[in-house]
Amino acid sequence: MATVSVLNMAGQEVGTLELNDAVFAAPVNEHLVHLAVVSQLASKRQGTQSTKTRSEVRGGGRKPWRQKGTGHARQGSIRAPQWTGGGVVFAPKPRDYSVKMNKKEKRAALKSVLTAKVNENKFVVIDDIKVDEIKTKTVVAMLDAVKANKALVVMAEKNDNVIKSARNIPTVKTALVDTINVYDILKYDTVVASKAAVEKIQEVYA
Description:
Helix content is about 35%, strand content about 15%. The chain is α/β, with parallel strands linked by helices. Strand 4 (about 150-155), helix 5 (about 160-165) and strand 5 (about 170-175) form a beta-alpha-beta unit. The chain is elongated. The two termini are about 15 Å apart.
C-alpha cells in the first residue's frame, strides 16, 4: 500500500495515511479516461439547435418562372438552398449528444486519474479542512502552505464556510466525495482532500 503524508492547514506533517491499492494504485486506463471526459463534456451540450430545411421554410410553392425560354437557369422554388431566405441543405436538428459509459468503466476511469495524481505527487491529504468563518484568505493561505495553486478541494461532508470561502478563487473548486469526476480531477493540477474524504473515497470505490 502507498503511504502519503497527512498535513495540517499550515502545511506541517501531522501523520501518515495508507492508501488502498484498489483505488489509488489501480491500472491507468487512458482510453477509459478519454472516454469519460468525452462523455462528460458531451452531456453538457443541449442539442437544441434547429434550422429549417427547404421543405419547412414558408412560401415558395409557385415556380418562379417558366422552365424554358427566359435565359435564366431553371428554378422550381424560391425556397431552394441557393436562394436568399431559402432552406439549409443539411440543417442541424435537435439531437442527443450523450455518450454512454457503463458504471464499471466510470469507476475504472476515476480510479485511473486518482492513481495518476498519487503517482505525480499531486494528491495532498489534510487532516481536517475547517474554516470558522467565511474568509477567502484562510483558504488561500492553506493552499499556499501545501503548494497547491490550481486545486480541487474534496470534502467528506458539505461545509458552507469552506465552499463560500473558496468560490471567489478562480483556480479552485470544491467538491464532495460523491460529486468528484474525471474531468475536474484532470482539469485541476492538485487534488487537496481531507483525511475523512480519502477514507470515504476508499469505502465507496474500493
